[in-house]
Design brief:
The protein has about 100 residues and is an alpha/beta fold. The chain has one domain (about 15-90). It contains three helices and five strands. The protein is elongated, with a radius of gyration of 15 Å. The N and C termini lie far apart (about 35 Å). Bound molecules: iron/sulfur cluster. Iron/sulfur cluster (SF4) binds near residues 28, 29, 33 and 72.
């Protein structure tokens, strides 16, 4: 991996906490939720690991904490464990799940 170098002044302004929307969509339909209530008009889908890696490598020099969910159920992404493993090599990570995919 090639390390990305940013101008020194970036150090003072760049965020340390990031959110990656690894899935836009959910297997439940909680009515109070923007996703479950179907109030999000963007196309639903999954981020591929290759896409995630591009983002992860860009934020790697600064990131102290990375949320791997936003509007959706992250366990629906078949690459979520690869994403956790990859990002946990340089930052703290977090997912929130509804647990429906655990049996
Ligand atoms: S993302 Fe969470 S709150 Fe929204 S529908 Fe799914 S389980 Fe419910």
């Amino acid at each position: 991996m090639n390390e990305i170098r940013y101008p020194e002044q970036f150090e003072k302004i760049i965020p340390r906490i990031f959110v990656a929307e690894t899935v836009l969509g959910c297997d439940l339909k909680c009515p109070e939720c923007a996703v479950g209530g179907n109030r999000i008009t963007k196309k639903k889908g999954w981020m591929r690991f290759e896409q995630f890696k591009v983002i992860a490598d860009k934020i790697r020099p600064f990131c102290k904490y990375l949320y791997l969910h936003h509007n959706g159920e992250p366990m629906l992404n078949k690459d979520i464990f690869k994403m956790i493993q990859y990002s946990s090599s340089f930052t703290g990570t977090n997912i929130s799940t509804n647990g429906q995919s655990f049996e």
